[in-house]
Give the backbone structure.
Amino acid sequence: MTTLDDVDQLTAQRFKRMSPGNQGKLPPVDTSGLPDGPKWPVLLQTAGLLRFRHRFHPYMHRTYGDIFTVRVAPGGRPLVFFTRPEHAKEIFAGDPEIFHAGKANGILGPIMGEHSLLLQDSSQHKRARKLLMPAFNGHALREYQSLVTEVAEAEVATWRPGEEFRSLDRMNRLTLEVILRVVFGVTDERRLAELRPRVNKTVNISPAILLGWGYPKLQKYGPWKRTVDNQHELDRLMYAEIRERRTAPDLADRTDVLSRLIVQGEDGDALDDTELRDQLVTLLLAGHETTATALAWALHEAGKDPELLARCRRAATEGDDDYLDAVMKESMRLHPVIPMVVRTLMKPATIAGYDLPAGTTVGPSIIITHSREDNHEDPDVFRPERFLGQNPPTNTWIPFGGGVRRCIGAGFALMEGVAVLREVFAAYDVTAVGDDEPKVRNITSVPRNGARIRVTAP
């Protein structure tokens, strides 16, 4: 069992071990046969990809076609983008021993840790997914739903008719509470008050901070040092919670994800404290801001269209969860929170007729896939009906990725989104205040102005 005295050392070791420069060297890549792409300096391409993705992806697509190569820091390694569903199918169906997602997500290593589901591959990934899956099956989701609804009710109860606010901020506050209570199982208000600011500082980091992981000396200065210090504090709180939970007298009766994982481990394959910490941080980062952003965009879109708002309110009062589910899905389509799904080739592979060497990173562009006219008619129009009684063609809607790496929390995110929309639209009319557009925040995209809305009594 991890003692709190060990935590600082564990955190420092993780930052050193998971630095992009220490995660294992990939072979040099012969770029002569790769698809076309810009000849710009590597740092300029990297900045375009990370900082200006919503203009960069469409520009690349218009300029170079359905497949294009970008070279990114550090080292100018090639990243080949694909934009057609048949190409995404080839990638998602690729041999997981060859198509490694963990290598491609390595920039997240210092925060998430080596045991993160997003960073593991092959047999390690299969084991971790098997251990986590029971906490996200249908039975578990039904048990979580009442708690999610309770948290949503409490949040909406703080709103006042005529109030104007950034819906992103309110949704972030709500989904953070859901994560802390449903996933972490924290109910003690003192511990919650300690965790909230630490979690927010972990989520709200810029692309420049992520790039800094490749340059460890930066971690002694400015925002990089503050990020490292925050991680030390968050880790202390998380390991303390894990240690206390293992000895909780009501452990077997608890239904939160952390308790389920501990109890499940007592009957067989167990996750140690470090593994639990890494998986909890992964679920936090993957399931907090992403769902909040989709909800904020959904409220803003409903606030722009009286007919859509009326349909949402009717669905909320009549218990039409299918329509609210369609609203969430359409929000994720029109406003992708994550820009791409990536895999790194551990052996040569052929995709879309291109023979690609080992070490190449490949992946579908979610931004382009979701905005193609041949995938979605009138792609710039918010139309939930696309998802009513049908699903879009395979691999044309991929906010959760695909294949054996499809997001384990997809069902949870949609369940949570429906529960929150139900509470909001049952209580209020919403009106969008001003226009909005996406901006980049860490690996996600969020509404630049926070998706401002005004709520009024119906």
About this structure: The longest strand covers residues 67-72. The radius of gyration is 22 Å. The CA atoms of residues 255 and 284 lie 17 Å apart.
